[in-house]
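User: Hi! I'm working on a homework problem where we have to compare a predicted structure to a textbook description. Could you give me the structure for the chain below?
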Amino acid sequence: MKFKIERADVAIVGAGFTGLSAARELNQAGIDVVVLEARDRVGGRVEAVQNGLGERIDSGGQFLCEDMPELMALVRARGKTLVETHVAGEFVTQPRMSEAQAGRTYGTAMRIRERMNAIAPNDPAIAGLTVAAWLDRQADPDDAKAAFRSMIEGLWCLAMERLPLWYLIDNDRRVTNEVSELQYFVRETMHSLADDLARDLGDRLRLNTAVEAIEDGPGGVRVVSPAGAIEARAVLVAVPPMMASRVDFVPPLPAVLKRALGVWQSGAVIKMLVRYPKAFWRDRGLSGMVMWRDPHGLFACDASRDEDHAALVVFIGGPLAQRWRDLDDAALRAKVTSKLEEALGIEAAGIIDLSYRDWTGDRWSGGGYSDLIVDATATDAERIIRAGASPIHFASSELSPSFPGYVEGAIVAGRIAALEIIQTAIAIRASGS
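Assistant: Happy to help. Predicted structure tokens:
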């Protein structure tokens, strides 16, 4: 096959929400863009599949809330329908607790989180500490500590022993919603938004195009894939840091930037949608929300579209996902069904469909929901990556100043990167270069 060379003003590597949002911004500024995506679809860690009932469901990122302005604006602009997540009723704790005890335990767990976030990320007293080591020093009851651990490992999908305390504080402070992040989901699927943005690109989107190398030379940047190359004035690497670190850069990136890309680890999550004939938990005054302290990192909530589509979504995060991924299909389904029965009663066994997506070790994202810094000394890693090595730029949800690790953060990161590229182009034109 003949090696094909195309040209564009900007080449974008990755068609997740970061890359798609950057492409939209650049296109609106009249800048010609080509987007290259390794998968056979867009969306990155946002994905939709058909379940066993033929229903289109989100197997990746799904939930949003009114405190996520960019995502809410996109939902409105694209005419999507928001479904309000059912939260009315009692939540169930596992192992079982009385309602009063559960209130005390989870209230204390939230106060632990608030106490943690009151610490300055650059406080010398926490240098080198992991979240686990810090928690061990706290005098709170063991049940509350277990609830805190399950909350953190469920949200960030990584063992607390791996998470530097300063990083989690800094990360958590940027997640600023005051209402629950589970407030809404999109009836048409979150992934339908990615498809809409992709359609805007027309033939400037290249699926099934894995980037092998990015070469920076006197004539510009060349992005090389098995299908050919894109020659551009600038390139935006819009993939998670771990994935960016695997690209072959020629010449090699500056040592400080290469190191900054190498201090991340992807989270681990398995996401399930469990369909039922009816939302039986509502009949019993339950919200459908189940919080497990043992095992850590297991969580369920109501994800019913309407009365005819009763469902629970189950998240298996962190070390638990790494252990349960080794189960065969039947054993994993049996394990989750058993846990739901213990929490919600025998009716939880009346499943009409169970679909799941194992994101642990995903080929093109590394895992889910995001990458996290695991080197306690890498306090400048995000700043270094955001600065890039012009004309090579980097962006991802992990690097966002707001909602890192969320779709909202991906949109924000993509827009910021695009605006920087636009400003650089304007400056070059003004200088006559």
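For your comparison, note the following. The first helix runs from residue 17 to 28. The two ends are 36 Å apart (CA to CA). Good luck with the assignment!
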